[in-house]
Amino acid sequence: MRKRVSIKALQAFEAAARLGSFATAAEDLGLTPSAISHQVKILEEQLGLPLFHRVHRSVALTDAGRSFATEIVGAFARMETAIRNVTTSNSGTEILTVRSMPSFATQWLMPRLNRVKALHPAIDIRLQASVSPIDLTTGAVDVDIRYNPGPPPAGCVLEQFPDDVIVPMCSPALANGLIPIREPKDLSRHILIHSEINIVGWRDWARKHRGVQLDMDRGLRFDRSFMAINAAVNGMGVCLDSLLLARQELQSGQLVVPFPTRGLRAQGHGFVTLKSTADLPKIRLFRQWLFGELDACRQWEEQYLSSLGTPAAGD
After folding, report:
1. What are the pLDDT digits (tens) for 97-147?
2. Are strands 192-195 and 156-160 parallel, antiparallel or unpaired?
3. Rounded to an integer, what distance in angstroms lies between the CA atom of residue 178 and that of residue 215?
4. What phi and psi, each to the nearest 5 degrees, are found at residue 212?
5. 158 - beta bridge partners?
6. H helices, E strands: number in the chain
7. How confident is the model over 67-81, as a mean pLDDT?
């Protein structure tokens, strides 16, 4: 026999579990803290088990409450998505929620959103930048752009981006300064900027350039590419990062690749969606646009590296 519980009580529990406080949940729902407490108590009686520990003026989920909250918060998120989708479809506008790694969102995707909007005015893009794992089955996000994604989660499909081309970059002032940078060995006299989250780093570069002595223990270290690129723009050293992410700075002349190079290659980002939603028009159109832009970027990268001249042997 199916156990029936109060929807009103579930709503109060979901808000309290999500926000971690009866008082904050009350503000969220426009109720009083005592009303939230009363509804949670009703739910506990209906389920026959405690969902919160009540300690003085604070509350904390029990083990059972935490497990229950995972399902209930997800269910409410799916209901919110369903409501949003049905209302936007009736208004002729589709909302596409894209979650991206912060550096790709900041350096590449955000400056191009006006292009996809011009092509597909009926699609409104909501961009979220985060490194935290996301469960696409909740329905809160349509597309997840992941870095070094690995195998896709169950029920998802992954389309890998073209390989990243990783090269040394610095400001023109540093490249042409008192200690100019004209060839790989010149880097031994400069500060290195490390992007510590990247798949490829300076140690990988050094293995390809064994005649260059680099001090790996010194230098600036960042856990985001956009910070390393910004540090290089500001003349703080030489970064080793993706041509894709630094294209804006290279085209504007804020950064240069100081000597001819082929660069290192690495599989970087991937486009992840649910199998069940991969062919929705809004996702399909966004995917086609994005990979078209990536293909254009790859052609630009090849032309840019060619314009630098012939790399030294072994580069």
Report:
1. 999 999 999 999 999 999 999 999 989 999 999 988 788 988 899 999 999
2. unpaired
3. 20
4. -100, 125
5. 272
6. 11, 12
7. 88
